[in-house]
Amino acid sequence: MSRFFPFFFLLLSASLHAQQSTFDTDNENWGASGDPLSTIAVWQATGGIPGGHIRVTDAATGGTWYFEAPPKFRGNKCDAYDRYLRWDQYTSDTTNAQPFGGRPDVMIEGAGLTLVFDNAQNPQLTWTHYDILLREDAGWRLNDITGPVPTQAEFRAALAGITALRIRGEYRSQADIGGLDNVVLESNFRFDLDGDDSSLVFDDGFATDTLCDPYSPVIDLDAVLFSEKPVDSIVLRLLLTSDGAAESLEIVGVVPATLMVSQPAPGWLTLKNNGPATLADFIAGLQALRYTNTAPTPTRGERFVAVRLYGECGDMGVRYAYLRVFPAGDAGISGDTTICAGGPTVNLLSAIGGTPESTGYWQPNLPGGLFKAGMDAPGLYRYIVPGAGNCPGDTATVAVAVEQALQLPADTTLCYGESVLLTVPTGLISWEWSDGSREFFLEINEPGVISLAGETAHCNLTDSIVVSFVTCKACPFYAPNVFSPNDDGWNDVWQVFLPCLWQRFDLQIFDRWGNLVFKAEAPEQVWNGKSKGMPVPPGVYAWRLEWVGELLGESKTNREHGSITIIR
To answer: pLDDT for 114-173, tens place per residue?
Structure first.
């Protein structure tokens, strides 16, 4: 929680508000560019004048390295015009140092311009002090040390929008080390939404503690505003909202009469100088503001309020308030679901009642809440919307059951003459066999594919079984040994009786001289005792048979022979 500081903090002397780096505790975010060994300036706790300082080591790979100023030296520094840039500097080696008139010693970039300055003296082995007047006629040039003298308008424009400030640290082509201390840019402007950075935002911004209720100030109690130039207005814009018109900036306190408030939109508010408004008046006006959210269930997350200040020089920069809105989470109402095995992926969030937030996570881990039967285990899944800070979260559960697939017996093979009795599995409330019947039992005594379609309370299911038949015993082959083809209607023909499935059949009958008198390619073909249309004489005839049939699911070749006696 931010600590309170009285408003007299605004009235400290101007020198304390200059943009300055004394390096007494750290490197204050200074860096280096060109060819340094590191782009981060190294802080030294001692050796400065007084206290600490920073130094940079040359990588000696070519080029010239510079100290790079951090963000607080950038932005609108228009009030630094006709004032000074000051610093102290040393170098570790002056051997073969470049003479005066080499490369720029100071560069200020802004408004598309580059202001450069060439010092009359290089840094020495001990601390050397520099005071550079920030005015166009003080020796400054445009772009390089031989460039034209900038106009006053150009100089002021560059100061009003500084994008980079560099101080040269290398003055010889060989490796060296440069030190820097007590950098001051005499721009006495400061606008910090949290003066002591107690909210842990270090860019002059402010962050709230986590809000369980969507209602928040936009600056801390110790906010700082110092400017030697008059402040014209402060414009606040609510950014990255999640709940639309339910979110707004509102005046809930007393705004000084010297300020005029205008609000073109709920998330857009302006405090404008309506007379001799003081800096304290603007701070008081900001303290009277609140972010509010009237949504029944505000979306959890961070909002941003941009606070932009305008002064005599125009836009003096923007500061940000980070509002962490985390009302109590809503994970919805616990539920359960039954999922069909082999079915599509199901989002378990659909099994939760109410209006669960989409920011939660599942435990056990279930990416996206997507459940796939067969890949994810049935059981209890928790949907957790986490708390934040002191703000509570919420948890809902989903009990997941998986409706197993309909399962008939495995495919089977039977012996001819046998049958299998199929039964409707339990749990079905309606069903139909592939032959159209709806019987609870179905006897199968013929080969084929038998399927069953059924419904449970949650799923439509199908399964099928393949039933095959094989010959399990040798075929009961029979061939009579006598017949009387005399057309008396009794025993007039002769044939082989083969009551089995066959694949090939070859029967031949011969007389006693070996002449073929009859041939058949199927057991149904009968011999009437004739050859070439004429009755054969009574007597004994030989026959020979070869047929291919099936036994235990495999083909088998059978060979038989015998004799027939014809009686007339």
So the answer is: 999 999 899 999 999 999 999 999 999 999 999 999 999 999 999 999 999 999 999 998
Identify the CA nearest to 520 among candidates 564, 470, 489: 564
Q: What is the DSSP letter of 426?
A: T
CATH number of the domain where residue 436 is located: 2.60.40.10
Beta bridge partners of 177: 57
Pairing mode, strands 314-325 and 206-207:
parallel
Angle (CA) 182 186 188, round 5°: 120
Phi–psi pair at 319, nearest 5 degrees: -120, 155
Which amino acid, 426?
T
3-class SS at 199?
coil
pLDDT for the residue numbered 100: 63
Q: Where are the beta strands (DSSP E) in 286-393?
A: 289-293, 301-311, 314-325, 335-340, 346-347, 361-363, 370-371, 379-385
Running DSSP on this structure, what letter comes out for residue 385? Answer: E
Alpha-carbon distance of 101 to 120, in angstroms, equals: 8
Token pair 């979306």 is at which residue? 299
Would you say the pTM of this structure is higher than 0.70?
no
- CATH code for the domain in which residue 268 is found: 2.60.40
3-state helix, strand, coil split of the chain in percent (to 5) is 5, 45, 50
Q: What is the DSSP letter of 58?
A: B
Look at residue 324 and give its three-state secondary structure: strand
Q: Is residue 200 part of a domain?
A: yes
How far is it, in rounded angstroms, from Cα 275 to Cα 286? 17
Task: Give the β-pairing of 206-207 and 113-117.
Answer: unpaired
User: Rg of the chain's alpha carbons, rounded to an integer?
Assistant: 50
Partnered with residue 543 across adjacent β-strands are 509, 562
Those residues whose C-beta lies under 8 Å from the C-beta of residue 367, and which sit 6 or more positions away, are none
Q: Give me the residues paired with residue 163 across strands.
A: none
Q: Which residues contact 324 (CB under 8 A, 6 or more apart)?
A: 207, 208, 209, 210, 211, 302, 388, 389
Query: Does 416 lie in the same domain as 387?
Result: no
Expressed as residue numbers, the domain containing 502 is 482-566
Q: Is residue 12 part of a domain?
A: no
Give the pair of three-digit tokens for residue 549.
Answer: 């049939």
Q: Hey, how many other C-beta atoms are within 10 angstroms of the C-beta on 128?
A: 15
Nearest to 21 by CA among 167, 220, 140: 167
Give yes or no for a contact between 140 and 91, defined as CB atoms under 8 angstroms apart: no
| Domain boundary pick from 269, 291, 325 | 325
Strand order across the 482-483 sheet: 482-483, 554-566, 539-551, 502-510, 516-520
DSSP letter for each residue of 207-230: EPPPBSSSEE-SS-TT-EEEESSP
Q: Which residue type, as a one-letter code, is found at position 257?
A: A
389 and 424 in a single domain? The answer is: no
Dihedral pair phi/psi, residue 392, rounded to 5° = -75, 155
Average pLDDT, the chain: 90
C-alpha–C-alpha distance, residues 335 and 330, integer Å: 14
CA count, 13 A, side-chain hemisphere, 408? 26
